[in-house]
Every structure is written in structure tokens, then in C-alpha cells.
Design brief:
This protein is α+β, with helices and mostly antiparallel strands. It folds into two domains: 185 residues, 2-Layer Sandwich (Nucleotidyltransferase, domain 5), CATH 3.30.420.10; 43 residues, no CATH class. Helix content is 32%, strand content 22%. Strands 5-4-1-6-7 form a five-stranded mixed beta sheet, sandwiched between helices. Strands 8-9-10 form a three-stranded antiparallel beta sheet, with no helix packed on it.
Amino acid sequence: MNKPRILILDIETAPLLASVWRIWDENIGLNQINSDWHLLSFSAKWVGDARIIYEDQSKAKKIEDDTRLLTVVHKLLCEADIVVAHHGKKFDLPKLNARFITNGFEPPSPYKIVDTREVAAKTFGFTSNKLEFLSSVLCTKKKLAHRKFAGFELWKQCLAGNAAAWAEMRRYNIRDVEALEELYLKFRPWQQTGSPNFSVFNDTEVEQCPKCGSENMHRNGFVCLAVGKYQRFKCGDCGAWARSGILCNTPEKRKSTLR
């Protein structure tokens, strides 16, 4: 059975380095920027595959030249049907696109984006939609807290070439992807809008779960809409609900239905 290839992705970028006069509420002009941001590291994995893909700039001769990392992640995006990233629609994917076009890459092949932060905000009412909080209450693999290098210090020390900081960045980035995969699989049956339909990836005529692609579907009541009644299904694997695309109403009943 054909299933979509789902890539879990998390990137880390270098900060802007600028000359400023104040430490609070400062507007930075373009001529104050000393060094622009670039890709620092990324971690990725395919759903269902234990292998973690991790690349960083720790061995780069010129740390701001992220072409090698971009080449690897561009290839992964071209192989993906769906890309899962936390805050991916506003950060990870636009940031990558900016680096791609700046470095002369062509657009990667089209893919669907599942932004778990967006799913959390639209579907649930958690105290926080940050990956740190969501993974702490829902996942067995929690987002890691910084150890030796707290907050910005980790990025600062990586830019300085500190091997211990790069080792911590590796652990930090990889765990984000592990936690994100678990969170995505928890959210998947709940997602109502913008969820890619798994059943369209296969030509079989057997009913399949639109959320996970399982054929373990059970008839469970009906859905009544303005145009008529549809058979309702529940997935025996992920627990998602779905409905048939075929009306149950007879032509005679549809003719007599008032609106």
C-alpha cells in the first residue's frame, strides 16, 4: 500500500549580529547588521524510520556558508509528501526558502505542511502551545532543557566553535525531532482542517483512514449534512473519524428533502 512520505523537521539558525546602543526596545537599521543569519543545524527523520538525520556547521571552514546543509535538506524536502514542523509555516519552511533562493537553489518539489503549533492552537486549549510544554504533558520523549549552555549562550558558544556547545546543540536538535514525531502522531487523529488525506495516496477501493491510511475502518453511524446523509467510519488504529463521499439518501428522498 502506498503511503505518503512524512518528514519530521527542525532547524536551528544563527542569530543576527548587530551594533546597538541599548539593550531594550532597540530598532536596528540595516546598516547596523554586522552579520546576517544563516542555517546552523537541522535534524530530520522519516515517520516510521528510526534513523535520525542530523547536520550542522561545526566542521565548516566558513560557518556562514551553509550550502552543504541546504543541499541535504533540499533533497529531503523533494522526497517528502508531507513535512511536519513546529511553527513550521511561519519559521522553519520560510527560513529555508529564504536561504534556498539566496543561494541559487530551485524550489523543492511541492509538499504539504503540518504545523503542530497551528494544530495545537486550532484544536486544543493548552496552557502553552510551545513544544517544550506540549511534549512535557503528551510525550514520553520531552524537549530537552539546555544543560551547560543556557539560552542564547548555546548559540553564542557554537558560533565561537566550542565543541561542547556543538555536542549540546546536537542533542537538543535531535530530541526536538523525536518529541515532534510523537506529538504529531498524537495530534493526527484530532486534526480537522488542513490535514493531508492519506486515502488519496493509494488507488485501492478499500476504505482507508484519511488521517493514517489504515484499512482497519469500522462503520459507526451516519453524518447528516444539509445535502444529505453519509456513512460514518471510525479508524480502529488511530481512532480518527471519517465519512464516505457517497450519499446514503435515495434519489427519491433527495427530491423530497426541503431546504
